[in-house]
Amino acid sequence: MSIRRNSINNTTVIINKKRAERPVELKSKKKKEEKVQYEKECPFCIGNEYRTPAVIYDTKEPYHVRVSENKYPIVKEKSMDNNEVFGNHYVVIEGKNHSDNMYEFTKEQMREIIKAYKNTVYKLYENEDIKYVQIFKNCGKDSGASLKHPHSQIVGINIVPDEISREIKGTKKYYEENKECFYCSRLKKEVQYKKRIIHMGKYFTAFCPYDSTYQYKVTIMKNKHQSNFGLDELEMMELGEIITLILKKLNNISYNCSYNMCFHFLKEENEFYHFYVDIIPRLNPMGGFEIGTGIMINTVDPEVAAEIFRNIQL
To answer: Where is the DUF4931 domain (predicted)?
Structure first.
Protein backbone atom coordinates (compact mmCIF):
# COMPACT_ATOMS: atom_id res chain seq x y z
CA MET A 1 0.00 0.00 0.00
CA SER A 2 1.21 3.51 -0.77
CA ILE A 3 -0.12 7.06 -0.56
CA ARG A 4 0.40 9.38 -3.52
CA ARG A 5 -0.40 13.08 -3.65
CA ASN A 6 -0.82 15.66 -6.38
CA SER A 7 0.67 18.93 -5.15
CA ILE A 8 -1.09 20.99 -7.83
CA ASN A 9 -4.71 20.20 -6.97
CA ASN A 10 -4.09 18.74 -3.49
CA THR A 11 -5.63 15.34 -4.22
CA THR A 12 -4.65 12.18 -2.32
CA VAL A 13 -4.92 8.61 -3.56
CA ILE A 14 -4.24 5.36 -1.70
CA ILE A 15 -2.84 2.62 -3.95
CA ASN A 16 -4.12 -0.55 -2.28
CA LYS A 17 -3.96 -3.75 -4.34
CA LYS A 18 -5.46 -5.79 -1.46
CA ARG A 19 -8.81 -4.02 -1.90
CA ALA A 20 -9.13 -5.68 -5.31
CA GLU A 21 -9.21 -9.08 -3.56
CA ARG A 22 -12.50 -8.33 -1.76
CA PRO A 23 -15.40 -10.65 -2.62
CA VAL A 24 -17.83 -8.90 -4.97
CA GLU A 25 -21.37 -10.28 -5.18
CA LEU A 26 -23.02 -7.42 -7.06
CA LYS A 27 -20.75 -7.29 -10.10
CA SER A 28 -22.76 -7.00 -13.31
CA LYS A 29 -21.98 -9.16 -16.33
CA LYS A 30 -21.72 -7.40 -19.68
CA LYS A 31 -22.98 -9.24 -22.73
CA LYS A 32 -21.97 -8.61 -26.30
CA GLU A 33 -24.57 -6.46 -28.00
CA GLU A 34 -25.85 -6.64 -31.55
CA LYS A 35 -24.77 -3.80 -33.82
CA VAL A 36 -27.58 -1.44 -34.84
CA GLN A 37 -27.07 1.23 -37.50
CA TYR A 38 -30.39 3.00 -36.92
CA GLU A 39 -32.66 3.35 -33.91
CA LYS A 40 -35.99 5.03 -34.55
CA GLU A 41 -36.16 6.55 -31.04
CA CYS A 42 -32.61 7.99 -31.15
CA PRO A 43 -32.49 11.76 -31.77
CA PHE A 44 -28.93 11.50 -33.15
CA CYS A 45 -29.57 8.93 -35.89
CA ILE A 46 -29.71 10.12 -39.52
CA GLY A 47 -33.36 10.73 -40.43
CA ASN A 48 -34.26 11.89 -36.93
CA GLU A 49 -32.70 15.36 -37.21
CA TYR A 50 -36.06 16.97 -36.44
CA ARG A 51 -35.64 15.72 -32.86
CA THR A 52 -32.48 17.74 -32.19
CA PRO A 53 -32.09 21.52 -31.88
CA ALA A 54 -30.32 23.65 -34.49
CA VAL A 55 -27.11 22.23 -35.99
CA ILE A 56 -24.17 24.67 -35.95
CA TYR A 57 -21.58 22.41 -37.63
CA ASP A 58 -21.92 19.50 -40.07
CA THR A 59 -19.24 17.64 -42.04
CA LYS A 60 -21.87 15.82 -44.17
CA GLU A 61 -20.70 12.68 -46.03
CA PRO A 62 -18.77 10.52 -45.37
CA TYR A 63 -18.15 11.33 -41.69
CA HIS A 64 -21.49 12.73 -40.54
CA VAL A 65 -19.99 14.62 -37.59
CA ARG A 66 -22.53 17.19 -36.40
CA VAL A 67 -22.66 19.72 -33.59
CA SER A 68 -26.03 20.85 -32.24
CA GLU A 69 -27.35 22.66 -29.22
CA ASN A 70 -28.12 20.35 -26.30
CA LYS A 71 -31.86 19.93 -25.79
CA TYR A 72 -31.28 19.47 -22.05
CA PRO A 73 -28.41 21.89 -21.29
CA ILE A 74 -26.38 22.07 -18.09
CA VAL A 75 -26.33 25.86 -18.50
CA LYS A 76 -28.55 28.19 -20.51
CA GLU A 77 -27.75 31.37 -22.37
CA LYS A 78 -27.59 34.66 -20.50
CA SER A 79 -30.96 36.35 -20.02
CA MET A 80 -32.80 38.74 -17.69
CA ASP A 81 -33.75 35.77 -15.51
CA ASN A 82 -30.40 34.01 -15.84
CA ASN A 83 -27.38 36.26 -15.33
CA GLU A 84 -25.33 34.51 -12.63
CA VAL A 85 -24.24 31.17 -14.11
CA PHE A 86 -24.83 30.89 -17.84
CA GLY A 87 -23.29 29.70 -21.08
CA ASN A 88 -23.82 27.27 -23.95
CA HIS A 89 -24.04 23.49 -24.11
CA TYR A 90 -23.45 21.60 -27.36
CA VAL A 91 -23.59 17.94 -28.39
CA VAL A 92 -21.05 16.54 -30.86
CA ILE A 93 -22.71 13.67 -32.74
CA GLU A 94 -19.69 11.59 -33.74
CA GLY A 95 -21.08 9.56 -36.65
CA LYS A 96 -24.20 8.10 -38.24
CA ASN A 97 -24.20 4.51 -36.91
CA HIS A 98 -26.14 4.12 -33.68
CA SER A 99 -24.08 1.32 -32.08
CA ASP A 100 -20.57 2.38 -33.11
CA ASN A 101 -17.87 2.78 -30.48
CA MET A 102 -15.13 5.41 -30.62
CA TYR A 103 -12.42 2.73 -30.55
CA GLU A 104 -13.73 1.52 -33.94
CA PHE A 105 -13.37 4.90 -35.65
CA THR A 106 -10.80 5.50 -38.37
CA LYS A 107 -8.08 8.10 -37.86
CA GLU A 108 -9.87 10.29 -40.42
CA GLN A 109 -13.15 10.08 -38.47
CA MET A 110 -11.31 10.98 -35.26
CA ARG A 111 -9.63 13.92 -36.97
CA GLU A 112 -13.04 15.25 -38.04
CA ILE A 113 -14.42 14.84 -34.51
CA ILE A 114 -11.49 16.73 -32.98
CA LYS A 115 -11.81 19.36 -35.71
CA ALA A 116 -15.47 19.79 -34.67
CA TYR A 117 -14.30 20.21 -31.07
CA LYS A 118 -11.83 22.91 -32.10
CA ASN A 119 -14.38 24.76 -34.23
CA THR A 120 -16.91 24.78 -31.38
CA VAL A 121 -14.34 25.85 -28.78
CA TYR A 122 -13.34 28.81 -30.94
CA LYS A 123 -16.99 29.71 -31.49
CA LEU A 124 -17.66 29.66 -27.74
CA TYR A 125 -14.64 31.80 -26.91
CA GLU A 126 -15.84 34.48 -29.35
CA ASN A 127 -18.24 35.38 -26.53
CA GLU A 128 -16.22 37.39 -24.00
CA ASP A 129 -18.54 36.24 -21.20
CA ILE A 130 -17.31 32.64 -21.60
CA LYS A 131 -14.43 32.03 -19.19
CA TYR A 132 -14.00 28.26 -19.46
CA VAL A 133 -14.81 25.51 -21.97
CA GLN A 134 -14.94 21.81 -21.15
CA ILE A 135 -15.05 18.99 -23.72
CA PHE A 136 -16.16 15.67 -22.27
CA LYS A 137 -17.44 12.27 -23.32
CA ASN A 138 -19.57 9.94 -21.21
CA CYS A 139 -19.59 6.41 -22.63
CA GLY A 140 -21.50 3.55 -21.00
CA LYS A 141 -24.13 3.47 -18.27
CA ASP A 142 -21.59 3.75 -15.44
CA SER A 143 -20.20 6.99 -16.91
CA GLY A 144 -23.40 9.02 -16.65
CA ALA A 145 -24.30 8.59 -20.34
CA SER A 146 -28.00 8.77 -21.16
CA LEU A 147 -27.84 7.89 -24.88
CA LYS A 148 -25.98 5.08 -26.66
CA HIS A 149 -25.37 6.81 -30.01
CA PRO A 150 -21.69 7.91 -30.03
CA HIS A 151 -21.47 11.52 -28.95
CA SER A 152 -19.52 13.92 -26.78
CA GLN A 153 -20.39 17.28 -25.25
CA ILE A 154 -18.95 20.78 -25.03
CA VAL A 155 -19.92 23.30 -22.37
CA GLY A 156 -18.85 26.94 -22.30
CA ILE A 157 -19.52 28.70 -19.01
CA ASN A 158 -19.08 32.21 -17.59
CA ILE A 159 -17.15 31.04 -14.53
CA VAL A 160 -13.98 29.04 -13.97
CA PRO A 161 -15.01 25.91 -11.98
CA ASP A 162 -13.41 25.55 -8.53
CA GLU A 163 -11.38 22.44 -9.41
CA ILE A 164 -9.99 24.09 -12.55
CA SER A 165 -9.30 27.29 -10.63
CA ARG A 166 -7.26 25.33 -8.06
CA GLU A 167 -5.32 23.65 -10.86
CA ILE A 168 -4.58 26.98 -12.55
CA LYS A 169 -3.50 28.51 -9.24
CA GLY A 170 -1.27 25.49 -8.51
CA THR A 171 0.38 25.48 -11.94
CA LYS A 172 0.99 29.24 -11.76
CA LYS A 173 2.63 28.86 -8.36
CA TYR A 174 4.78 25.96 -9.61
CA TYR A 175 5.91 27.99 -12.61
CA GLU A 176 6.79 31.02 -10.45
CA GLU A 177 8.88 28.83 -8.14
CA ASN A 178 10.52 26.58 -10.77
CA LYS A 179 10.44 28.60 -14.01
CA GLU A 180 9.01 25.53 -15.72
CA CYS A 181 5.54 24.22 -16.52
CA PHE A 182 4.47 21.56 -14.00
CA TYR A 183 3.14 19.30 -16.76
CA CYS A 184 6.28 19.67 -18.92
CA SER A 185 8.27 18.62 -15.85
CA ARG A 186 5.92 15.70 -15.15
CA LEU A 187 6.14 14.47 -18.74
CA LYS A 188 9.95 14.58 -18.68
CA LYS A 189 9.97 12.49 -15.49
CA GLU A 190 7.49 9.98 -16.91
CA VAL A 191 9.59 9.56 -20.08
CA GLN A 192 12.77 9.09 -18.01
CA TYR A 193 11.08 6.62 -15.63
CA LYS A 194 9.45 4.72 -18.56
CA LYS A 195 7.39 2.29 -16.44
CA ARG A 196 4.16 4.30 -16.65
CA ILE A 197 4.46 5.11 -20.37
CA ILE A 198 1.97 3.40 -22.70
CA HIS A 199 2.68 5.06 -26.04
CA MET A 200 4.95 7.82 -27.32
CA GLY A 201 4.08 9.65 -30.52
CA LYS A 202 5.58 12.59 -32.35
CA TYR A 203 3.14 15.06 -30.81
CA PHE A 204 1.55 13.29 -27.82
CA THR A 205 2.48 10.78 -25.10
CA ALA A 206 0.04 8.48 -23.28
CA PHE A 207 0.82 7.31 -19.74
CA CYS A 208 -0.79 6.17 -16.48
CA PRO A 209 -0.18 9.04 -14.04
CA TYR A 210 1.82 8.45 -10.84
CA ASP A 211 -1.15 9.67 -8.78
CA SER A 212 -3.91 7.92 -10.78
CA THR A 213 -7.17 8.32 -8.90
CA TYR A 214 -8.91 5.62 -10.95
CA GLN A 215 -7.92 2.13 -12.12
CA TYR A 216 -6.30 2.26 -15.56
CA LYS A 217 -6.62 6.04 -15.82
CA VAL A 218 -4.69 7.36 -18.83
CA THR A 219 -3.42 10.87 -19.54
CA ILE A 220 -2.55 11.87 -23.10
CA MET A 221 -0.28 14.91 -22.94
CA LYS A 222 1.08 17.15 -25.66
CA ASN A 223 4.84 16.70 -25.97
CA LYS A 224 5.46 20.35 -26.80
CA HIS A 225 4.26 22.99 -24.36
CA GLN A 226 0.86 24.37 -25.33
CA SER A 227 -2.03 25.70 -23.25
CA ASN A 228 -4.85 26.29 -25.75
CA PHE A 229 -6.66 24.16 -28.34
CA GLY A 230 -4.59 25.37 -31.28
CA LEU A 231 -3.90 21.91 -32.74
CA ASP A 232 -3.00 21.55 -36.41
CA GLU A 233 -4.20 18.79 -38.77
CA LEU A 234 -1.30 16.42 -38.05
CA GLU A 235 -1.66 16.87 -34.28
CA MET A 236 -5.40 16.24 -34.45
CA MET A 237 -4.81 13.10 -36.51
CA GLU A 238 -2.25 11.70 -34.06
CA LEU A 239 -4.32 12.59 -31.01
CA GLY A 240 -7.28 10.76 -32.53
CA GLU A 241 -5.14 7.70 -33.27
CA ILE A 242 -3.81 7.57 -29.70
CA ILE A 243 -7.31 7.96 -28.21
CA THR A 244 -8.61 5.03 -30.27
CA LEU A 245 -5.50 2.98 -29.42
CA ILE A 246 -6.10 3.46 -25.68
CA LEU A 247 -9.82 2.73 -26.00
CA LYS A 248 -9.16 -0.47 -28.00
CA LYS A 249 -6.75 -1.68 -25.33
CA LEU A 250 -9.17 -0.68 -22.57
CA ASN A 251 -11.85 -2.73 -24.32
CA ASN A 252 -9.48 -5.72 -24.11
CA ILE A 253 -9.02 -5.14 -20.39
CA SER A 254 -12.76 -4.83 -19.74
CA TYR A 255 -15.23 -5.42 -22.58
CA ASN A 256 -17.53 -2.44 -23.19
CA CYS A 257 -16.02 -0.65 -20.22
CA SER A 258 -17.75 2.61 -19.28
CA TYR A 259 -15.43 5.61 -19.29
CA ASN A 260 -15.27 9.38 -19.18
CA MET A 261 -12.94 11.43 -21.36
CA CYS A 262 -12.11 15.05 -20.52
CA PHE A 263 -10.05 17.62 -22.45
CA HIS A 264 -8.05 20.17 -20.45
CA PHE A 265 -6.93 23.46 -22.02
CA LEU A 266 -7.33 27.22 -21.59
CA LYS A 267 -8.42 30.03 -23.89
CA GLU A 268 -5.10 31.86 -24.00
CA GLU A 269 -1.60 30.51 -24.48
CA ASN A 270 0.59 30.86 -21.37
CA GLU A 271 3.75 29.44 -19.79
CA PHE A 272 2.19 27.53 -16.89
CA TYR A 273 -0.75 25.45 -18.21
CA HIS A 274 -0.61 22.45 -20.57
CA PHE A 275 -3.00 20.73 -23.00
CA TYR A 276 -3.91 17.17 -21.99
CA VAL A 277 -6.69 14.61 -22.22
CA ASP A 278 -7.78 12.26 -19.42
CA ILE A 279 -9.46 8.91 -20.11
CA ILE A 280 -11.04 7.61 -16.91
CA PRO A 281 -12.42 4.04 -16.90
CA ARG A 282 -15.39 3.56 -14.57
CA LEU A 283 -14.59 0.04 -13.42
CA ASN A 284 -15.50 0.48 -9.75
CA PRO A 285 -18.05 2.90 -8.27
CA MET A 286 -16.89 5.29 -5.57
CA GLY A 287 -17.63 4.02 -2.06
CA GLY A 288 -18.57 5.85 1.10
CA PHE A 289 -14.95 6.40 2.15
CA GLU A 290 -14.08 8.16 -1.12
CA ILE A 291 -17.25 10.26 -1.06
CA GLY A 292 -16.90 11.10 2.63
CA THR A 293 -13.18 11.95 2.68
CA GLY A 294 -12.25 12.93 -0.86
CA ILE A 295 -9.39 10.40 -0.67
CA MET A 296 -9.52 8.03 -3.63
CA ILE A 297 -8.71 4.30 -3.52
CA ASN A 298 -6.97 2.78 -6.55
CA THR A 299 -6.55 -1.00 -6.52
CA VAL A 300 -4.23 -1.15 -9.56
CA ASP A 301 -0.71 0.30 -9.45
CA PRO A 302 -0.30 2.79 -12.33
CA GLU A 303 2.97 1.01 -13.18
CA VAL A 304 1.12 -2.31 -13.47
CA ALA A 305 -1.73 -0.71 -15.43
CA ALA A 306 0.72 0.78 -17.95
CA GLU A 307 2.46 -2.59 -18.38
CA ILE A 308 -0.90 -4.27 -19.04
CA PHE A 309 -1.75 -1.62 -21.65
CA ARG A 310 1.66 -2.02 -23.33
CA ASN A 311 1.42 -5.82 -23.46
CA ILE A 312 -1.96 -5.91 -25.22
CA GLN A 313 -1.39 -6.78 -28.87
CA LEU A 314 -4.09 -5.53 -31.23
So the answer is: 28-158
